[in-house]
């Protein structure tokens, strides 16, 4: 029997999904979440497509499942299900339709599956119909009939037939990597409270050319300095989305897993590279910890954090140690070629991060209840920090 290797969790994720067991387990986690939704709503006819999608997903290879399930919108759709019982009928119809679009249609773009003949009805507003984006005038809800016949999908709205066009669908659902426009932003903000985000949030009016260029330079710096980390970012992050200041400099959220949010302000390129690695690493650790447990402590904010003024749960300090270990490694690699970058002292950054990590790892060592995976990762983090003093 082949043994699964869960070692080296600090190293960047492999680009080959077939060899990334954590990402495969994350896909299975999402399938289980979708199964729970189906079982809790067995009498909901407009969810029949989800049962068929689950069957198809179980026959897919790891790459197909990853492309369909490990996307920001699918995580958001699952998160929004918590409010399903309290939604009005229009909200329910919109939620069901969006799931059909972003799971069932995506699945049938990615794989060559034989579809069962069926008809589905939804009542949604034209703005939620990707094939009617240019509709003007009456924006009242419209009934849409989805016809699946002989492995083809057709939409009927007010006796007009629209044939499913995979190219138009792909264009509507996939924006630029560095962007201020993602179709799901409004839905996300509606479930993420201002208190939770610690700010009011709206997308930037436009991404300035200067800031776009600086982010492109930062990504190129990562690619040159640490190509394996660049590959992880390329394979795991779907968008960097800009929002208006004031606010957090950067952040990520599992409810839109695979996204980095960035405040639209000017920064040195090397600091942008640091923050991209930081947030991409939060995304990676979320994948690792969803696939297998690391930490059994509760979420009480009672511990001093090297990175926050307020007390934090041990979970947050554990995440902080992981992401800063990777940032420390990045700065070490950068130091081999230069002492400063954009007037940022690389040596000073290494010293700062090393001291913060010693404090964070000391708190973890003294208080954490760890799984074997967690113990192994903490050992690797301690070894990385100690290597800096050699």
UniProtKB/TrEMBL annotation:
InterPro entries hit by this protein: AKG_HExxH
Domain of life per record: Bacteria
NCBIfam families, sorted: mod_HExxH
Name of protein: HEXXH motif domain-containing protein
UniProt organism field: Peribacillus muralis
